[in-house]
């Protein structure tokens, strides 16, 4: 074995043994194959969902997105009602969950006595571990009756002039879905926000306090401006979770897919919830394909939401020292 | 304003307490050994003893097989990313894992339906595969995190002594990270044990007998809760609460234990890294 190459220069690493070891090659290729398989898997998911929806795509085209109703006998399907329901529930949950989550994060970083920070953080994160089917069960049997008997009439009588708070209907409602989804996205937004708030440099906060601001003024002037980008990303991830949630929504929302109405107290459904409820009863052919189309819309939404959140994090991460 | 933050925290913790308390209050009273040992009886008269043994058996098999599928692949992906991959590939795979993690469970259910169920019918394997797709990014991410915590000096020492790369990885790095990998796997199991959406179209058409074979469709606890919660019969609700209580306790105990262990082992690794 020569330690000199053709030009007569010393080879850089005479001891390292650049000879290929079969074990190394084996481990690297098996592990590489697993990684490649993961990439392939994502491609396969996209391919299969597109393939399944091809018939519906070619029949309805983009008009599918604008048509309201799911007419089994006439083979006429549309997603507009579900898109509306998805937007309503996701935005509603976001509006309720974001201030709550920011409050929780502020509490955990600025206000809470040191001893209870750990336990409260753990409790809030445990909320994320509760399966959606259990939250849905609780939603349909415990929350919905309470909301219908007390909360909805109260909201209707005080805020009834807004179309959102119409007369309460008798059955399941969009409003219950919003409440249930709020619970599910709250821990996502609050745990990311907490990390962001922890990352705000102490010097900045102390400087503000030294200038004589109150704690709230310091939060408004320093903590919020410093972390808004990350909070936006956290909200995106929350929306991603809310619009993809199928089971809990299917349990509480009511499976109504032929009207677009602003009244939150009536039944409705979301893309994911509708798939969960009715896919099993679908006729093969155009109807099944239309369900794949719904799944395709959801898939596109989830990809967009996650990529946008990632771009935001990329932008702000170097400044805020975010983990990812 | 500070009062509002206190209030928000109280509401968040209140949510958890409320759910757990509601489930416990209604579930505990319905809890008995029949739930775990007796199969459901269709059109049962009041007083007939029935349970959800088929759902519990099915869940055990489904989650077990899914773990066997996802765990080795997830660990290998993590090994490739932290030990072998060049930087741009590392970022690319990180992105793919995030994307996979962000795909709604119901879409994964539809995907597996299109992949396996069309033409072959439902099976426990199809359901397990769907659960494994959800577990994979969780296991890989958790493993990547602990592998990154293993000090570089340890790898250098091993390589410097002449050990080949594969022995360094499998014999030195991986054993250091085993605690973290196990907790990651346990968290992933706790997560998929409660998943309903991926099983809805892949392994839901079942009889009432207890079955352990994943080559046929298997019932599962989340699916049982879902179906019973839609029923108008209050006796069905009672069984749903009992099953939900068992599921919730399993998930809370495993995930809290895993989190506690994870914090401990991370602290230990950090200390070793100095």
Secondary structure layout:
The complex is a heterodimer of chains A (324) and B (274).
Chain A: H1 22-60, E1 70-71, E2 76-77, H2 80-111, H3 114-127, H4 132-159, H5 174-198, H6 202-210, H7 215-244, H8 247-252, H9 271-278, H10 286-320
Antiparallel strand pairs in A: 1-2
Helix pairs in contact in A: 1-10, 2-5, 2-7, 3-5, 4-5, 5-7, 6-7, 7-10
Chain B: H1 2-28, H2 33-37, H3 53-84, H4 87-102, H5 105-120, H6 124-149, H7 152-160, H8 165-193, H9 221-230, H10 234-273
Overall structural class of chain A, as computed from helix and strand content, comes to: mainly alpha
Secondary structure tally: strands of chain A: 2
Question: How far apart are the first and last residues' alpha carbons of chain B, in Å?
Answer: 41 Å
Largest sheet of chain B: none
Describe the largest sheet of chain A.
2 strands, antiparallel
Give the % helix of chain B.
over 70%
N-to-C CA distance of chain A: 46 Å
Principal-axis shape of chain B: globular
Count of individual helical segments of chain A? 10
Q: Could you tell me the strand content of chain B as a percent range?
A: under 5%
Helical fraction of chain A equals 55-70%
What class do helices, strands and sheet pairing of chain B give?
Answer: mainly alpha
pLDDT averaged over residues of chain B: 90
Number of distinct beta strands of chain B: 0
Rg of chain B over CA atoms, rounded to whole Å, is 22 Å
Structural account:
The complex is a heterodimer of chains A (324) and B (274). Chain A has helices at residues 22-60, 80-111, 114-127, 132-159, 174-198, 202-210, 215-244, 247-252, 271-278, 286-320; strands at residues 70-71, 76-77. Chain A contains ten helices and two strands. Chain A is mainly α and 324 residues long. In chain A, helix 1 (22-60) crosses helix 10 (286-320). Chain A has a two-stranded antiparallel ribbon with strand order 1-2. Chain B has 274 residues and is mainly alpha-helical. Chains A and B meet through helix 1, helix 2, helix 3, helix 4 and helix 5 of A and helix 1, helix 3, helix 4, helix 5 and helix 6 of B.
């Amino acid at each position: 074995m020569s330690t000199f190459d053709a030009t007569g220069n010393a080879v850089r690493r005479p001891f390292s043994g650049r000879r290929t070891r079969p074990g190394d090659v084996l481990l690297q290729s098996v592990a590489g194959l697993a990684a490649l398989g993961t990439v392939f898997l994502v491609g396969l998911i996209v391919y299969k969902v597109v393939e399944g929806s091809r018939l519906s795509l070619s029949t309805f085209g983009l008009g599918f997105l604008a048509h309201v109703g799911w007419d089994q006998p006439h083979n006429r399907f549309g997603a507009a009602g579900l898109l509306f329901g998805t937007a309503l529930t996701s935005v509603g949950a976001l509006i309720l969950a974001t201030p709550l989550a920011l409050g929780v994060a502020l509490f955990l970083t600025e206000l809470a006595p040191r001893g209870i920070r750990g336990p409260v953080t753990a409790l809030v994160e445990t909320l994320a571990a509760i399966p959606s089917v259990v939250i849905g069960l609780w939603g349909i049997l415990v929350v919905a009756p309470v909301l219908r008997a007390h909360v909805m009439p109260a909201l209707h009588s005080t805020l009834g002039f807004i179309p959102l708070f119409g007369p309460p209907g008798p059955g399941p409602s969009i409003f219950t879905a919003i409440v249930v989804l709020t619970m599910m996205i709250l821990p996502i937004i609050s745990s990311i926000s907490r990390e962001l708030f922890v990352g705000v440099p102490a010097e900045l906060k102390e400087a503000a306090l030294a200038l004589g601001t109150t704690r709230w003024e310091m939060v408004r002037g320093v903590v919020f401006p410093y972390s808004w980008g990350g909070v936006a990303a956290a909200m995106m991830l929350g929306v991603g979770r809310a619009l993809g949630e199928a089971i809990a929504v299917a349990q509480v929302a009511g499976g109504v897919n032929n009207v677009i109405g602003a009244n939150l107290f009536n039944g409705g459904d979301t893309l994911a919830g509708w798939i969960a409820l009715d896919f099993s009863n679908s006729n093969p052919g155009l109807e099944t394909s239309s369900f794949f189309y719904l799944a395709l819309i959801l898939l596109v939404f989830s990809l967009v939401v996650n990529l946008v959140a990632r771009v935001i994090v990329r932008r702000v991460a170097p400044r805020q020292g975010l983990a990812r | 304003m500070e009062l509002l933050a206190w209030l928000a925290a109280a509401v968040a913790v209140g949510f958890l307490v409320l759910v757990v308390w509601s489930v416990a209050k209604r579930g505990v009273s319905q809890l008995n050994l029949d739930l775990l040992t007796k199969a459901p009886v269709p059109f049962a008269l009041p007083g007939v003893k029935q349970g959800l043994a088929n759902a519990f058996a099915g869940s055990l098999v489904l989650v077990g097989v899914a773990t066997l599928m996802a765990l080795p692949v997830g660990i290998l992906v993590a090994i490739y990313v932290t030990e072998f991959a060049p930087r741009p590939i590392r970022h690319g795979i990180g992105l793919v894992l995030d994307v996979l993690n962000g795909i709604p469970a119901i879409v994964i259910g539809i995907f597996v339906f299109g992949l396996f169920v069309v033409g072959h019918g439902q099976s426990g394997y199809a359901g397990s595969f769907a659960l494994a797709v959800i577990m994979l990014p969780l296991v890989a991410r958790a493993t990547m995190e602990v592998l990154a915590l293993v000090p570089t000096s340890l790898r250098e020492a091993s390589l410097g002594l002449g050990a080949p790369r594969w022995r360094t990885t499998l014999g030195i790095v991986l054993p250091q990270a085993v605690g973290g990998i196990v907790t990651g796997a346990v968290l992933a199991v706790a997560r998929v044990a409660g998943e309903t959406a991926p099983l809805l179209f892949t392994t839901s058409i079942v009889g009432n007998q207890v079955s352990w074979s994943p080559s046929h469709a298997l019932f599962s606890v989340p699916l049982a809760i879902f179906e019973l919660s839609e029923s108008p019969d209050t006796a069905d609700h009672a069984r749903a609460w009992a099953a939900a209580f068992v599921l919730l306790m399993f998930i809370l105990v495993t995930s809290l234990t895993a989190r506690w262990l994870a914090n401990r082992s991370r602290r230990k690794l950090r200390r070793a890294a100095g």
